[in-house]
Amino acid sequence: MQINMMGVAAEMKETAWEIALIQLAEAAKIAGLSRETTEMLSEPQRVLIVNFPVRLENGSTKFFTGYRIHHNHALGQIQGGTRFSPDETLEDVKALALWMTVKNSLNGIPAGGGKGGVQCDPGTLTRQELERVCRAYIRAIAPLIGPGVDFPGADIGTGPDTQSWMLDEWEQIHSLRHEPSAISGKSIALGGSQGRSAATGLGVGLAVRETCRHTGRDIKKLSVAIQGYGKVGSWSARTLESFEAKIVAVSDVHGAIYREEGFSAAELDAYIKQNNTLAGIPGSTVINNEELLTCPCDVLVPAAVQGVITDNIAMDVKAQIIVEGANGPTTPSAEKILEKRGVLVVPDILANGGGTVIAYLERVQGIYGYYWVESEVHQKFDNLFTETFKVVYETSRQKGISMRMAAWVRALRRVEEAMIARGWTQA
Fold first, then answer.
1. Active-site choice (94, 115, 186, 231)
2. Which CATH architecture has domain 44-183?
3. I want to staple 184 with a disulfide (CB 3.0 to 4.6 A). Which of 22, 97, 359, 370 is the partner?
4. Could you count the other beta carbons within 10 Å of the beta carbon of residue 136?
5. What's the mean pLDDT when you consider all of the chain?
6. Which of 183, 14, 16 is nearest to 94 (CA)?
């Protein structure tokens, strides 16, 4: 704790990297990992920091800082997203890369964990400027990516357009060789996968469905609050609505709204398309972000950024189930409070793994040049997710540990097995 200028105790927030290391240490102890394995996983294997110039529309030149991190490649080539955010830091990217190692391993994907990003605000750039940033970033990190090495995907601030520009730049660098397995999250016209846009939100919805299945709840009677109505939050809402759950609260960068009777996804989508904000939807009550996290609901889906559920928030959460759509939204100390209060937390590495699973399916399709329709992609993911959830939930109950630790233990043991097989560490 620290004391602010008003003399009131305030919480000190851990960085994302500090949170990731706390989770790693706890899981490594439970899993019985060797000291060598734990030490190796406590630092990335490769860290690339780049600074590159981009010519802006006003004729000036601006330098941007970017990152690409390979946390661990024991299980295969690196796979992880690319985040464009003004708040991007090296610490954040390191944490996200570690979480990707665990997430890929948990889901049985033959890939190691990585992450990338650029310190920029896409909302302040013209379309031409954003394209230049994408191309300059790929030129800067080109030695560290490519088929068999690193398969960069999309994340916050990136999408089909940015990924398509990145793929085109990579192919131009490599003598115009068409290589759809070089970049993921790209346009379907360039070899992207059907069903990719819904992937992470679909996983969140499936996590709620499977939680109900294993705990005997009726999903049709659940009320849900979603923090962050972006790519993940909006698809979470659509998926949960298809399961007949009720969405009672949502938020965006402008604030949050609540309606006990619920919102339809179509209503939310139409209003935000017309007004560029959720604020002002007729019949809704305007609330702040903290009130959304603690509003009356059965399920809370934090789908924005990390570290939002702190100790103070955890004490007031009304939901009995938290499904993490964002990476690292719950601090370790807050999770202990939630556990004591009987709140079930479905961790990020399980709940939001849809993006990396379908990115892997995109890589497979790109390598073979054989593509599936959306229903096939989603069914493959559904089958894989259902089995993974079952194993994690049963392990949690049998071992008397949280679902987060059950997921981490399963994932870390698989990573260690690969490291031993490679001769990096000893059994």
1. 115
2. 3-Layer(aba) Sandwich (3.40)
3. 359
4. 20
5. 94
6. 16
* pLDDT tens sequence across 265-306: 999 999 999 998 898 899 999 999 899 999 999 999 999 888
Look at residue 307 in the predicted model and tell me its pLDDT. Answer: 86
For residues 301 and 207, is the Cβ–Cβ distance under 8 A? no
User: Rounded to the nearest 5°, which phi and psi values hold at 396?
Assistant: -60, -45
CATH number, span 199-351: 3.40.50.720
> How many other β-carbons are positioned within 10 Å of the β-carbon of residue 422?
11
Angstrom distance (rounded) from CA 80 to CA 112:
8
Kindly report, as residue ranges, where domains of CATH 3.40.50.10860 are found in the chain.
44-183
DSSP per residue, 149-165: TEEEEE-TT--HHHHHH
Residue 159: Cβ within 10 Å count:
18
For the chain, the residue count is 427
Residue 109 token pair:
């994907």
CATH 3.40.50.720 positions along the chain are 199-351
**103 noted as active-site residue:** no
